[in-house]
Design goal:
Order of helices and strands: EEH
Shape: elongated
Strand order of the largest sheet: 1-2
Structural class: alpha+beta
Strand content: 5-15%
Number of strands: 2
Length: about 50
């Protein structure tokens, strides 16, 4: 993959809060399964966005 600029990283929209978030190295192998921008959103996934 090599070095990439932040602006060139893939992004997704969080299923909980609706905010966009960028790819992270720790999600490299599971990027297709990532749905939430943070641990807080993942834990509160049953609550609708405000």
């Amino acid at each position: 993959m090599g070095m990439r600029r932040k602006g060139d990283l893939p992004t997704k929209v969080c299923s909980c809060c609706g905010r966009p978030f960028a790819w992270r190295k720790r999600w490299e192998k599971v990027w297709d399964e990532v749905r939430y921008c943070s641990e807080r959103c993942r834990r509160g996934r049953g609550k609708p966005a405000q």
